[in-house]
Every structure is written in C-alpha cells, then in structure tokens.
Amino acid sequence: MMKTVVQVDFPYKGPFGQEMATAMAGLAQSIADEPGFIWKIWTENPEAGEAGGLYLFEDPDSAQRYLEKHTARLQSFGVSDIRGRIFAVNEALTAIDRGPV
Fold first, then answer.
1. Cross-sheet strand order for the sheet of 37-45
2. Is 98 left (phi over 0), alpha (psi -120 to 50) or beta?
3. Contacts for 26-32 with beta carbons within 8 Å, 24 or more apart?
4. For a tag on the chain, would you pick the N or C end, based on fewer CB atoms within 10 A?
5. How far apart are CA 53 and CA 60, in angstroms?
6. Nearest to residue 6, comparing CAs of 65, 71, 67, 59?
7. Model confidence at 92: pLDDT above 90
8. Residue 1 above 90 pLDDT?
9. Selection from 66, 33, 90 nearest residue 54 by Cα
10. Are 59 and 36 in contact (CB under 8 A)?
C-alpha cells in the first residue's frame, strides 16, 4: 500500500506553544490511536492565527476516513474554513531527503 499524507490547516486563535500542548494532549492521544495512523506533525502560526498538522497514514483509505472524521470534529468545535488535502507519498524521493517515512 502507498503511504499517504494528510495536510490540514484552519483558522485558530489559540492557545499556542506549551499552552496548546497542554490543552490538546487528550486529542493528540486519540489521534495516535486512529487506524492506519503513523505520525503527526502539529503546526501552528500565531501571527497568522492558524493551526493544523501533517499526518502520515499507512494507506489512502485510512487517510480519507481520518480527514472526514477530523473535519467533522473541527466543525463541531465551531471551526470553519478547514482546508484538508490528501497526497500520495513518493517514498523513493522522500528517502533521499531523509523524510520520516
């Protein structure tokens, strides 16, 4: 199966940094337990008022299921303008550039 990256970002007013880490620890653990999940890089940009992440999944189906679930969860928190995209990983090129796949 082809590993798959999910890229998500959305408007976010905070908290950021360690406060975000503390506030989102439970969510981080639930993401870690998702089927097909390999890793996530959490992203934040306080200046632009954005947050999100890059996720790696074992396969496209797991990635799609998670993106749908995560989008619905964010919407239930009142978040709009959610941008979610799915990409196949070219593992040969990623390995040359030391990507964590």
1. 37-45, 50-57, 4-11, 83-88
2. left
3. 31/55
4. N
5. 17
6. 67
7. yes
8. no
9. 66
10. yes
Q: For residue range 23-81, what is the model confidence (pLDDT) as tens digits? A: 999 999 999 999 999 999 999 999 999 999 999 999 999 999 999 999 999 999 999 99
CA angle 39, 44, 48 (to 5 degrees): 150
Quote the tokens at residue 69.
């679930």
First and final CA of the chain: distance in angstroms? 13
62 in Cβ contact with 39 (< 8 Å)? no
pTM summary value = 0.92
44: amino acid identity, one letter: E
Reduced to 3 states (helix: H, G, I; strand: E, B; else coil), residue 7 is strand
